[in-house]
Amino acid sequence: MPTEIIKILLIDENNELAQFDRAELPQNDETSFAVVRKMSAEEGLKYFVSDFKSISVIAISNSSGTQTLRLFLDQGIPVPVILILNEQDFATVTEAMKYGVKDILLRNDVTPELLAMSAETVVERVRRNRHLTQPEISSARIDAMQDFVAGIGNDFLSSLQEMKQKIAELFSDEPPANMAMYLKIIDDNVERMEKKIHQLQSLNSDKTVQYIKNIRMIDLS
User: Fold this and answer.
1) Which residues pair with 1 in a beta bridge?
2) Under 8 Å CB-to-CB from 102, ≥6 apart: which residues?
3) CB 153 within 8 A of CB 197
4) In angstroms, what CA-CA distances link 54 with 28, 81, 166?
5) What is the DSSP string of 45-63?
């Protein structure tokens, strides 16, 4: 019999993960999983307050970026959060990282097995971090960031390369001066994003700076 139950509170505001109401999540000799699905942030918060001791992970799936995530974090929710997105939107992923989201999944890829694996991983990571020294925490944070960036960095770099090729094609047509000026601005921003992704991929320190409130952001200067 499993000795630990990982209970996942799933916030499904778009009603796109109804299969989890009847899904049997995988279990092993040590761990079993349970999912409670709520259709709004308000319902989820109410349920969490009523049964917070049994909830191990919160998984948030919606189309409003980090709005629901911020709503939960503003309440001081003390459990790890998994964010489920429609697509890999760079701005949303970056903001989610700032807020300390432990994992990000794509909705089209989410299965009971994947959600269970992600929940087990983040619960174990949080548990392990409670017993680490500060240098160990720093090393673990770098490893986690590198793992995270490795999963999405190449996809972003591929998209940026396509943008650069398109910009080069537009420049080759000798556009008017005002259009060329805007293309140069876009090209500079693409170069800047590409540089930041490469910096993240080769990250070897967890230097951070204050962002807002108790949230810090990675310093890539």
Assistant:
1) none
2) 80, 81, 82, 122, 125, 126
3) yes
4) 19, 15, 52
5) HHHHHHHGGG--EEEEE-S
Q: Decide if 180 contacts 171 (C-beta within 8 A).
A: yes
Chain position carrying tokens 């800047």: 192
pLDDT digits (tens, 9 = 90+) for 133-177: 666 666 766 777 767 666 677 778 888 899 999 999 998 888 888
Read off the pTM.
Answer: 0.58
Cβ-contact 119, 59 below 8 angstroms:
yes
Ramachandran angles phi, psi of 10, nearest 5°: -100, 115
Q: Which amino acid is at 12?
A: D
Residue 27 carries which side chain, given as an amino acid letter?
A: Q
- CA angle centred on 139, ends 193 and 97, rounded to 5°: 40
H helix intervals, the chain: 41-51, 67-73, 90-98, 112-129, 134-172, 177-201
φ, ψ (nearest 5 deg) of residue 81: -120, 135
The CATH architecture annotation of domain 4-129 reads 3-Layer(aba) Sandwich (3.40)
Are residues 150 and 142 in contact, defined by beta-carbon separation less than 8 angstroms? no
Checking if the pLDDT of 210 tops 60, the result is yes
One-letter amino acid at 32 equals S
At residue 135, the 3 state secondary structure works out as helix
pLDDT band for position 61 (cuts 50, 70, 90): confident
Contact call for residues 200 and 97 (beta carbons, < 8 A): no
- In angstroms, the Cα distances linking 41 to 45, 126, 175 are 6, 23, 49
